[in-house]
Design a protein that fits this description.
This protein has 281 residues and is an alpha/beta fold. It has a single domain, classed as TIM Barrel. The chain has eleven helices and ten strands. Helix 1 crosses helix 2 and helix 7 crosses helix 8. The longest helix has 15 residues. The chain is globular, with a radius of gyration of 18 Å. The chain starts with a strand and ends with a helix.
Length: 281
């Protein structure tokens, strides 16, 4: 496993396992146990995913020492604000059966996220959270928050894949010393992701899959990735990306695939914002 060092010195695996959309508790527990058996130690969940309890059960049953794990959760919009966020983070720890969290993110830049961040700063100083950060913060809101808070976010998790490479956003995160993390590294298969001819040509050269090439591309750009799958063999495939290196030419060919646009949603669209803030209310 390769690691990135966050701006506070905490080491984070560059490859983790995400549990988005695995709401069935038994299936989620089984998936996390499978991922742990493969070798994953970074697990990414969220309050709105409704599977923190299952993740906690898997961690407990795995028998792996707590200090080997890097556990991330995210505060949802409905829990925004200093008091509600603080209480919700404690509730997340209770569900996960953990007495500290490795990373807590603000899930979306809506509602009183400044109050949320203040509560996270306080819990960080108290040692309850090892690192704090953001999710889905576009450069404008990201910069605004960085400039008016005490602790620079350690991570900003944003949609990042070969079709939306977040080049400009990544530049600003580097400027302010925040680690970029990808959600949706496979774009959920959109744009015929897994049969893309550019990815396929490079994959054939290394006897790898298009998925492995896509992950390797992000990793070589120092992007943390958390691919999600419920299939153990795919978990193994996604984990097996540290035994080959893309050339500069390979990287250039993939860079051309970037459209600079989201394949999912835009926070600049009012109807999208209305939809997101009503989720999980």
């Amino acid at each position: 496993m390769e690691y990135v060092t966050l701006n506070n010195g905490v080491k984070m695996p560059i490859l983790g396992y995400g549990v988005y959309q695995i709401r069935d508790q038994e299936e989620c527990e089984r998936c996390v146990l499978d991922a742990i058996s493969v070798g994953y130690r970074s697990i990414d969940t969220a309050q709105v995913y409704q599977n923190e309890i299952a993740v906690g059960h898997a961690i407990e049953k795995s028998g792996v020492p707590r200090e080997e794990f890097f556990i991330t959760t995210k505060v949802w919009i409905s829990n925004a604000g200093y008091d509600k966020a603080k209480a919700s983070i404690q509730e997340s720890m209770d569900k996960l059966q953990l007495d500290y969290l490795d990373l807590v993110l603000i899930h979306q830049p809506f509602n009183d996220y400044y109050g949320t961040y203040r509560s996270m700063e306080e819990l960080y100083k108290a040692g309850k959270i090892r690192a704090i950060g953001l999710s889905n913060f576009y450069p404008d809101r990201y910069i605004d928050l960085v400039e008016f808070t005490e602790i620079v976010p350690a991570v900003n998790q944003v949609e990042t894949h070969v079709f939306n490479q977040q080049v400009k956003a990544h530049e600003f995160m580097k400027k302010y010393n925040t680690q970029i993390e990808s959600w949706g590294p496979f774009a959920e298969g959109k744009n015929n992701f897994f049969t893309n001819p550019v990815l396929q040509e490079i994959a054939d050269k290394y006897n790898k899959s298009t998925a492995q090439v896509a992950l390797r591309f992000l990793i070589q750009r120092d992007v943390v990735v958390i691919p999600k799958t419920v299939n153990k063999s795919r978990m193994e495939e996604n984990f097996n990306v540290f035994d080959f290196q893309l050339t500069a030419g390979d990287m250039d060919k993939i860079a051309v695939l970037d459209t600079g646009e989201s394949l999912f949603f835009s926070h600049y669209d009012p109807q999208t914002v209305e939809y997101i803030i009503n989720l999980g209310k």
